[in-house]
## 1
Amino acid sequence: MPTNEQLLSIFENHLAQLEPPVEPERLYAPLVYSMSGGGKRLRPMLLLLACGAYSDDIRPALPAATAVEVFHNFTLLHDDIMDNASVRRGKPTVCAKWGSNVAILSGDAMLICAYRMLRRSPEELLPRILDIFNKMAAEVCEGQQYDMDFESRTRVSVVDYMRMIELKTSVLLAGSASIGALIGGASDDDCRKLSRFAGELGLAFQLQDDLLDSFGTEKELGKRIGGDILEGKQTYLMVTAMSRADESVRDILRHTHRDTSLTDDEKIARIKAVYEQLDVKRLTEQQISVRFERALGILDTLDIPRERTIHLREFASSLIGRRK
Amino acid sequence: MPTNEQLLSIFENHLAQLEPPVEPERLYAPLVYSMSGGGKRLRPMLLLLACGAYSDDIRPALPAATAVEVFHNFTLLHDDIMDNASVRRGKPTVCAKWGSNVAILSGDAMLICAYRMLRRSPEELLPRILDIFNKMAAEVCEGQQYDMDFESRTRVSVVDYMRMIELKTSVLLAGSASIGALIGGASDDDCRKLSRFAGELGLAFQLQDDLLDSFGTEKELGKRIGGDILEGKQTYLMVTAMSRADESVRDILRHTHRDTSLTDDEKIARIKAVYEQLDVKRLTEQQISVRFERALGILDTLDIPRERTIHLREFASSLIGRRK
């Protein structure tokens, strides 16, 4: 079985060999641009690793792995229009570079392209793969809509927040693992378990992302610390703090990012102080640990020898191990 | 076999029974709103009629008929954002009513919904149905991109224009007919023929739309006459006129819609006079006739008794007969 590094390189080679149409240029150039932006390729890696746990031949899973990555990049492309974002992975976003009309339409073409890739999966599995993919795709849109809805809500509960990130992030990882296991030949039961594994891992990963934004280093985060705080974004830290604060502290949490008498650094310091004071940092770390351990625990229950799960374990640790 | 009127009502009943999710409300309400806008249901009708030509049971084709109609409404929803359109079929567009972010995301959800519907087609045909649908969906996006590209081009050839409307309009009608025939049990050869039939019909229909905008009545067109002229849009009439005009008349064609010394009625009258003078009206009518007759001629070559094509013929005549 290939190492995780080799697997990533197999996937990147596969991607590089795909030749999307050239014309019309303004439709397909953004697609190529967006796919070449790198990123961690988490979803295809999970899909291929889940397949590899059951089969030594991961090639039948490469089209579906491409499909989930194309789908993920499609969501980023459209999210960037809605968020009016100008930079992604250190490069101009498609909407900043080509304008939002091109970004809307080339995003649509990407979503269709994801389905074209998926179609190349083993034919006898196609109906079930489509069921998983369609459900997951709809749920990711639901998650994005809840995320936008939260912007205009003054209060978001921890439960609502967890449900939103489950839809927006976990569901796609869970679906990827499930499709990979299916193609690898796993039983329905093991497909469900790997889906739950990836779902828990996805939650841990998203919570870690929230944590790093306030308490990580720029190197770990890959961008400036405190962005979420300055935007007044709902994060696990913010909704947990709100649930534990009294009314006066809630006012601080709600209004600091708009306080024009403070510098950015002062705003970040003030909110972080509240997080520390309310024990939010430790609670978040605990929640990440719980989800991570639960994910690993699920791997113990699969109907395959433990050594076949080693690469999945390594992958999980490489994701959540960032602060360990 | 049901009459075309009955068939439309079977389809509308099927649509009405679908229950899309309720939450999140801002994701799914625009979907329901957009699907309830009426319209002529051309694509599902063609799909069901093509199926009905081969099989007395059209029920297996209802999900695919829904899929092409949902897909069509998805394209309108996103096109309206790109065109900044505020009214569609006499009602506010989704982007005017909910804003463009909601329109982008609910459009995405609609495209995914189209694939969910398609998935309910007979399983043994699913791979081939997906092939037709995916190709057609990608081509519709290509057509829309060419249409947007034309806005910034000073000269569009008749050939380029025909290719654009083929992609933007015909391809979806052709794919619908082809999927319907496939589900009905037609041979590959007949599927291809019905695809060409619908493609030619689609071109005739689009050219007729272009013609009515200048030379129809408000009643036929369903909106004010001359809209394309006032927008300076590329239409079959405009690109044909440009190809036949000398340099001085081309200047009139290019600049009249921006001439602030003229009223709207004067602009429309001036361009229509040029069209008459260059014989563009007659040439367009001729082109519509040629396409329409070609479409009907293809029906003669199908491997079924002529009486099974009667409803398709009626449908075609009801579309193109508007001025006859």
## 2
Amino acid sequence: MREASRTLLMMPDTLRTRAILALADLVDANHTLLLEANARDLVKMTPVNPLYDRLQLTDSRLDAIVSDLRHVAALPCPLGEVMEERTLPNGIELRRVRVPYGVIGVIYEARPNVTFDVFSLCLRSGNACILKGGKDASESNEAAIGLIHRALRECGINPDVAVLLPSTHEATEALLNAVGYVDLCIPRGGRRLIDFVRDTARVPVIETGAGVVHAYFDRLADLETGIRVVDNAKTRRVSVCNALDTLLVHSSRLADLPALCKTLGDKGVEIHADARAYEALSGHYPDRLLVRAAEADPEREWMDMKMGLYTVDDIDIAVEHISRYGSGHSETIISEDPVAQSIFTCRVDAACVYVNLPTSFTDGGQFGLGAEIGISTQKLGPRGPMGLREITTYRYILTGHGQVRK
Amino acid sequence: MREASRTLLMMPDTLRTRAILALADLVDANHTLLLEANARDLVKMTPVNPLYDRLQLTDSRLDAIVSDLRHVAALPCPLGEVMEERTLPNGIELRRVRVPYGVIGVIYEARPNVTFDVFSLCLRSGNACILKGGKDASESNEAAIGLIHRALRECGINPDVAVLLPSTHEATEALLNAVGYVDLCIPRGGRRLIDFVRDTARVPVIETGAGVVHAYFDRLADLETGIRVVDNAKTRRVSVCNALDTLLVHSSRLADLPALCKTLGDKGVEIHADARAYEALSGHYPDRLLVRAAEADPEREWMDMKMGLYTVDDIDIAVEHISRYGSGHSETIISEDPVAQSIFTCRVDAACVYVNLPTSFTDGGQFGLGAEIGISTQKLGPRGPMGLREITTYRYILTGHGQVRK
């Protein structure tokens, strides 16, 4: 694997691109094979299981996979960029050059499209990948890796640059302990998977995804902006990591809460409010959707048409709340006050900090990265949406003619 | 601590600088206090212990600490740099801004000067630090943190931005498990410490230091360059991580070995050679310094006047050897052949790859970083020598006026 990953360093970028395009053609021509394999997975799951929909492949989903593969093939190559170039006083030429990580392990759950997604992003950035998919999708993933290996062979690339692990617990343990063989491990999935990986891994890990996301409606917030931002952040898609979980409202603006939350009520968002906010909304928000916040609510990532609502007496308390309960993913302030904006963007320590915008924009595509392998919520390594550039590292190359150090 | 670390974000850089200068003055004025504390540590250790010298403070070492502190205070501030600035098609202004990690934990061994070093680099880059020094240096470190807290208080900075942990195993465990409180942990010390930290930590870690370093003397190497490079890499300082451990020689150049290694023999370097190299050197190298390589030698970081020596039949085998036994620290090729140079710099995956230069240059000062908190040997996060910039991360700040995502 390590040896195979090194062959990626020496090949022209056009060859890696060609393999991804070949894979797109293979997927396009093999709907039946993929759908039959997927059907063998689906019969093992009841359709009422919420994972069923994620697991299911359809003709249109396969078309989307083909289109995504072609898109990744069309992105600019992230490798070889000279990030820094200097001549040291002793005449040594120092360059800092962008290179792949080498071998990236990705652990994910029941979505078979992730197999194609991760493979193409890793190959495009010169990385070999070890794929560990969910047990529920094992037949689909076997079919996918079969096509991936065919595409690689067609292009004369060592198929060992993409390995699918058996979907066993032992395979996961081995991957997480492969010090010296795996340069980076990225878990893609729910909080439990991520916690397990972080707690178990001896190889470097990038935590992704889990987002406890806040919006702070400031003393000097514009109400119309607030309505748009809160609605879009909360209701655009409730099951994604950038969705709003908690609204913090400045106590001087409690009277605006009915207007601020009207759209949420119309759409059926259940609000878990603290005492002051509850009182301000009572009679102005659907009764069945208004409940008192429980003790554990501030730390919840709802993933549902539900939202926490807390009153704060000043921006410092808002920042403190976010620091305590936020997961470093995405946070936004609604305010027309430049001082408050600046305090917020300076002190709120998240990957993405917004001013007068919904957190829904935290996304590789929206950021112009062209694609996304995940959203990092840790500070070591890339932060926020990770595109091709974010799954590369650098190397110092120093050239001289026998200078020595005193 | 988290709260204290946030105060660092809001203060002007001049205040952080002033605190470091105040500390320099305090160290300058308190030699007696520091030397007495150090003496209490030293009595607990026998002078023949190799750690004794590392532990010992002297007037001239304190002067060096003062000078290092003033140097760190004079470096440019790494924070606030706008690394990227774009307007997205929907009018959103996206900026990527350099910010501190937050809270950095550093675990180190018996050198009391590291306490001042780590504190000043962390403070200068806006990071709070948790210091876990070695038990042997506990009195010295207590005295040091006392002066650090005095300097911080004099400047009106919350002294909690620098915390010294008790030198117990429990404190280390707590630090390594402080998910959500510690953003980054850097072990500084020997291989055992680093392995322990990597295997135990649930917080993100940067592995530092350990270097199994190679020089490859190519078919088309210039002999004079090779003599200079090998001598400097091996004998400049044998106890540092960038020191040469293994020389790989192209089989067509075995006849040059006596000349290549002459200086090493004069200086007393013991060579552990494979069969072919042993034969080539026999009779041309001091007998008592020439031994046959043992099986475990290729993976040894010697830290001594000793060196492995292996014969390779081509550059691919050299690259393979380095991939297998190297630690990703520093590697060098001696060759006049541009093709060999390019294969080596492309395929050898180390933080620092050299052409016709000794690996002794792997050092923050030599790289022009101004200072160094360690040398990273992993690929996630900063790689190679880490200065102030390398202990910062970034944050996306997006500003709009109520745009929403479709």
